Fold this sequence. Notes:
The protein is an alpha/beta fold. Helices cover 40% and strands 21% of the residues. The strands form 2 sheets. The chain has a 6-stranded mixed β-sheet, sandwiched between helices. GO terms for molecular function: ATP binding; ATP hydrolysis activity; ATPase-coupled transmembrane transporter activity.
Amino acid sequence: MSIVLEHVNYIYGEDTPLALRALNDICLTIPDGQFVGVIGHTGSGKSTLMQHLNGLIKATEGHIYFNGEDIYQKDYDMKKLRSKVGLVFQYPEHQLFEIDVFTDVCFGPKNLGLDKEEVKRRATDALKKVGLGEEFFYQSPFELSGGQKRRAAIAGVLAMQPQVLILDEPTAGLDPRGRDDILKQIKQLQTQTGMTILLVSHSMEDVAEYVDRIIVMNKGSVMFDDVPKKVFQHYKELEEVGLAAPQVTYIMHALKEKGLDVDVNATTIHEAAEEILRALKG
Length: 282
């Protein structure tokens, strides 16, 4: 098991008049190699939860295990944890600061104390994995497009060779094509490497298309945790907490109500198209 959370609670401003419970009795297991979507309205606790996974925030109560070790045990190596559980914040391009893209991506592995050749090898490999060829290596990161900056920032985390990659709204602010390019690259990365990926997103279409499992956060608790088809069966409950299902879900239900014998559990455009054609032929 890659990551296990047992009864994790977190209170902002504990023991103060402004105390706020952000996480409430979270119990989760994230197996190796899984692509997990984490969704929830603003303030639901999803980003707070993600920051617990690499030790940026320490739980008020509970335990978190990474590869069988309690990360809160005395003398646990947090630096090692953060090299294995990479966190890419929302708008990660704001973290770019070096003179060129290649030097920026080298920053993380260099700080791990690796030799010069290994640092270069990792940076080259990471940039290629995110689809940035050698023509971008020595450009200023500030000359790149928004999507290219996002890729460069993700490469900086990949160069640390994490076992787990956490992406907090990686497509925020990008146009539709840039968003699709980033997500396809992430999915390809996960397929090729078997890396565990947690994708925090507000886009139901994105999670429906790419992830194996969805965790829905609401008021600091896990509301649903299942495969996309089963989670989006609860679309009315999701609406009640400020979320929604993919547009495809609503279309399929509308077609069913009009008398077309379709499976309303289709969650992607491809699945919906196949199901509609099947129903029409039938």
